[in-house]
Amino acid sequence: MAVEFPPLPQPPVDQRFGIIYADPPWDYKGQLQHAGPGSGDSGGAVRHYPTVKLDDLKRLDVAGIAAADSLLFMWATSPHLDQAIALGKTWGFAWATVAFVWDKQRVNPGFYTMSQCELCLVFKRGKIPMPRGARNVRQLVSEPRAEHSRKPIEVRRRIEAMFPEQRKIELFARDQAAPGWNVWGAEVAHPQTERTFWGAAGS
After folding, report:
1. Beta strand extents in the chain (DSSP E only)
2. Is the per-residue pLDDT at 59 higher than 70?
3. E-only strand ranges, 4-114
4. What is the pTM of this model?
């Protein structure tokens, strides 16, 4: 059954977002996972929030909130890299590169190698938005992971450093809007809690 999403913001053309930051709730088909010896069953994504199939994510009109020149920063777990690239293209962006590599400082068992890192990809629509800020921001972020699925705030800070003046929105947000950001997601009203379903919020 398709997920019925609440509407995304509908900004006028001159107020669309130059920076879109997204952490999609990827569907693992109910697969569970373990965080390592002694840690017990982490439960997998499905026990923490409703996961969403790729076809349903594609139905979100992210292109409709993106400025003509804009960037999409998207988190993608390793098993979903192909889906993430397909999703970014469906949302109206061209694949660019890996923006950030998050070293979680702790390993998970894997089918091939021990999993320790997660990637934040970047896609481009039109040209890189101007003006630009810092040009020496590093790709590697080494911070311990927190509760399931929460991403390091440092990544958002580095995006701000690179693009300080662009309008920004975080999709599938887990906290209240940081200064200079809009947010869209259920947890914005209940920071530090697990997702149940997302609704629209922000400024």
Report:
1. 17-22, 66-76, 94-108, 115-125, 140-142, 168-171, 181-184
2. yes
3. 17-22, 66-76, 94-108
4. 0.82
H/E segment holding residue 87:
helix 81-90
The stretch 161-184 carries a mean pLDDT of: 91
Angstrom distance (rounded) from CA 19 to CA 2: 27
Q: In sequence order, which residues have a C-beta less than 8 Å from that of residue 190 and are 6 or more positions away?
A: none
Task: Compute the average pLDDT of residues 168-196.
Answer: 71
- The residue type of 17 is F
Per-residue buried b or exposed e for 44-79, using 16+ beta carbons within 10 Å of the residue's own CB: bbeeebebbebebbeebebeebbbeebbbbbbbbee
pLDDT at 27: 83
> In this predicted structure, what is the pLDDT of residue 6?
67
For residues 99 and 139, the answer to whether their CB atoms sit within 8 Å is yes
- Structural domains in the chain, CATH included, are 13-30+41-189 (3.40.50.150)
